[in-house]
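Q: what sequence does this backbone want?
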């Protein structure tokens, strides 16, 4: 996946966006024009993202989710 040609082939096959600008340049224009996968920078500024909170927080989240899922 580190080689642009592999990242481009994977992005086209699985239908996911690639973070590699070099790979993106290898993709067909109809894929890179899709704003759902490659939004404008102004739209990106309005989006939310998750931050890694550390191992303890992730373990707590996983434990709580498992309790909820199992109805404990």
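A:
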């Amino acid at each position: 996946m580190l080689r642009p040609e592999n990242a481009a082939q994977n992005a086209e096959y699985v239908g996911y966006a690639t973070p590699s600008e070099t790979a993106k340049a290898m993709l067909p224009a109809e894929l890179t024009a899709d704003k759902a996968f490659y939004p404008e920078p102004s739209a990106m500024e309005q989006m939310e993202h998750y931050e890694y909170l550390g191992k303890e927080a992730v373990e707590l989240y996983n434990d709580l989710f498992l309790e909820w899922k199992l109805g404990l």
